[in-house]
Amino acid sequence: MKVPFLDLGPQHRSLRTEALAALAATYDATRFCLGKDVEDFEKNFATTLGYPRALGMNSGTAPLHVACMLAGFGPGDEVITAPFTFISSAWGINYVGAKPVFADIEEGTFNLDPAKLAAAVTPRTKGIIVVHLFGQPARMDEIMAVAKKHNLFVIEDCAQAVGAKYRGTPVGLLGDAGTFSFYPTKNLGGCGEGGAFVSRREELHTRARHIRVHGSDRRYYHDIVGGNFRMDGFQGALLNVKLPHLAAWTARRQAIAGRYLTGIKLAGVRLPEQPVYGQSVFHQFTIRHPRRDALREHLTKHEIGTDLIYPVPLHLQKCYASLGQGPGTFPVAEKSAATCVSLPIFPELADAQVEHVIASINSFA
Ligand SMILES: *Cc1c(COP(=O)(O)O)cnc(C)c1O
Prior knowledge:
Layout: H1 9-14, H2 16-28, H3 36-49, E1 55-57, H4 61-71, E2 78-81, H5 88-95, E3 99-102, H6 114-120, E4 125-131, H7 140-150, E5 153-157, E6 165-166, E7 169-170, E8 177-181, E9 195-198, H8 202-212, H9 233-242, H10 246-263, E10 285-288, H11 292-301, H12 331-339, E11 340-343, H13 351-362
Helix pairs in contact: 2-9, 3-9, 4-5, 4-8, 10-13
Pyridoxal-5'-phosphate is lined by residues 59-61, 85-86, 88-89, 131, 157, 159-160, 181, 183, 195.
């Protein structure tokens, strides 16, 4: 039985008629950049997921960049983030001329370790970018306590955690700003590039809205330095078609994860921890095993697709060599990169496919 790591086909085939009709309407109305479809999506996204308001942007990297501009990070400032994440979590820090500083993650959840975070704070630290990796909310109470103590601006990278809550609060509302990605492989994926910005602070939302359109409120008047971070109309239209399905897709991801958590019995395997403060929306289901490469080969033989997310932590990427943090600097992140393997977990997987993954893992010797 074949089990692809990810197949975007079934979901898009099932929505084809509705999606193409929505695109046609947007096309006919020539609503190409922002416009009604994006405004509708912003309202629907906010209402459905519990945000006071939301701004559609043109990638998941865009709101991270905008949030770093809003925070006022700049040359000489340090911003702390996790070394075990997608590279984009850190890019915004570089874009505004500040310095990324890493703090190691926890073993259980792959998320920022609050004690390591506290230890990384210096007099130059101005902010934190918290990543809710793989859909699992990070330990926000402890992280916000560090932020309050040192007066730090907190950005939550929710690219993988759409729909997740921390102790009942939607992720992105705990810190100063939250960011989402609608890259096609994300839990809520567009048909192209997309992202969103949220904030519980209305003044930040207003400034983000101006930054999104070249720092302007009125056309051709630019009160602040901005950029082009606009979502296109087609993405707004498509995301409006997809959003009503998100809750069911998330429930299906959680059900598959539940099967993996109870079914996988292989000795030496480490399953992701399930903390009480926030249930994961399982963008990924990532396990660790000391013989990861052999386990992966075994699964390939059983026609099961897997992926290494992530094979190289950020501090060991060439682009950050100048930070001078070599191997051994962040042992938990490095061990995670060396032993992790992500399993198939998209909503359209059949139960039989999930059982095949479990049986195949358990038969690894
Ligand atoms: C996908 C992702 C991003 C960036 O999103 P893009 O839409 O590719 O720009 C940022 N952070 C994390 C953790 C991601 O997974």
